[in-house]
Amino acid sequence: MKKFIDTKPTYVANENLSAESVYIDGIPLEDQIDGFTTLNVSGRELVPYKNLTNEVSGADGTMWLSANYGERTIKVKYLLKARSDTEFRQKFELLNFYLSKKQATFKFYDDPLYFWVGTVTAIEDFPVAVNSGISSFTITCNSPFKRRIEAVTFDNKQDGKLRISEPAYWATLPDEIKIVLKARSGNIRLVSPRNLISLTGNFSAGDTVILKPSDSPDNNSEIMLNGIEKFELLDLTSDFENFTLKYKDEVSCNVDADIYIRLRSKHL
Questions:
Q1: How does residue 263 score in pLDDT terms, banded at 50, 70 and 90?
Q2: Does position 45 have pLDDT exceeding 70, yes or no?
Q3: How confident is the model over 60-76, as a mean pLDDT?
Q4: So where are the chain's domains?
Q5: What are phi and psi of 5, to 5 degrees?
Q6: More confident residue, 217 or 14
């Protein structure tokens, strides 16, 4: 079963934003810098594979080894207008400030449910000797995927099995897995089509286990039992930080329990 959420943008902007207006950490630049307008954005469409190959002596071409998606580059073309030289400098000071974060979230007005994480890595020189002109900056996203801003919660209340019913086509690590036990057990096993999480301990009916797997060096994985950190419950055979889920996956549990999974799907 799926719990529906409000899919409206989290930031309510004015109606004068351009169709592809850029947001940085949830803030639209056009609301913050008078005279700034996003003209167009490129680089959000198809992403090619990067081939890993090996040259073979005496053979034509190369031997294919593997292929992976590389980083994504998004180019934002903008117009900046000022009434005087002083105002022009002030507006660029503001623009530099908003673009200065080494890594930030970026989203766009025409795609309000998703965000990218990236860094401004290139800028185009602004026309000289004018206070109005067109230029651009480039955002490099180490991951080519965009993520949902709001998580969707799935549960197993319908028939004991939790199903990912949202079209999450790319396997994604959940934000949180919550298990509310209805019976005593010495072991909890969560099984997906590809992975397993196994916990060993003294679990009682009414206990709440919260799992927060992370594959980011900036965020540590967590396992909580009734609000207390209990990472030692995790069995070494578990695929805890690889417990990714995607569309039509089913998750089952060996113990009678209510299961809730919060997932922010990723998309190309």
A1: very high
A2: yes
A3: 94
A4: 2-145, 151-267
A5: -125, 165
A6: 217
Give the angle 215-101-118 at the CA atoms, nearest 5°: 45
Q: List C-alpha distances in Å: 200 to 18, 134, 203.
A: 54, 61, 8
pLDDT in tens, 143-186: 999 999 999 999 998 888 899 998 899 999 999 999 999 999 99
- State how far the Cα of 223 lies from the Cα of 233, in Å rounded to an integer: 8
CATH number for the domain running over 151-267: 2.60.120.860
Give how far Cα 227 sits from Cα of 66, 178, 186, Å: 43, 12, 19
Cβ atoms of 172 and 266 closer than 8 Å: yes
Backbone angles phi, psi at 3, to 5 degrees: -95, 120
Question: How is domain 2-145 classified at the architecture level of CATH?
Answer: Beta Barrel (2.40)
All residues at 6 or more sequence positions from 152 whose CB lies less than 8 Å from its CB, including other chains: 2, 3, 4, 5, 166, 262, 263, 264, 265
Asked if 45 and 144 touch (Cβ cutoff 8 Å), the reply is no
Distance between CA 45 and CA 56 in Å, rounded?
Answer: 34
Asked whether the predicted pLDDT for residue 3 surpasses 60, the reply is no
